[in-house]
Design goal:
single chain, mainly alpha, 434 Repressor (Amino-terminal Domain), 2 strands
Length: 78
């Protein structure tokens, strides 16, 4: 199982910008970008606040992918 961040898409679809998120969470551009790409994760309190701001359930911030399927998609084809 692997988590795929949906934070970037949800921010883009919201009334907030990434700059708004930087101000709200007192985090730098790279940190917000990493949350959006799944390279790093916000803390639990930050996850709850993000969901609240974006008008979604906490579970909607991430999509769960099947790890085996993910690896099959990356396998080279002959």
């Amino acid at each position: 199982m692997r988590l795929r961040s949906r934070i970037g898409v949800l921010i883009d679809d919201s009334k907030y910008s990434r700059e708004d998120m930087m101000r709200e969470f007192k985090r730098g551009r790279n940190t917000i970008s990493n949350w959006c790409t799944g390279k790093s994760f916000p803390s639990v309190p930050e996850v709850w606040r993000l969901a609240e701001m974006l008008g979604v359930e906490v579970g909607e911030l991430y999509a769960v992918e099947d790890w085996a399927k993910h690896n099959e998609e990356k396998a080279p084809t002959e």
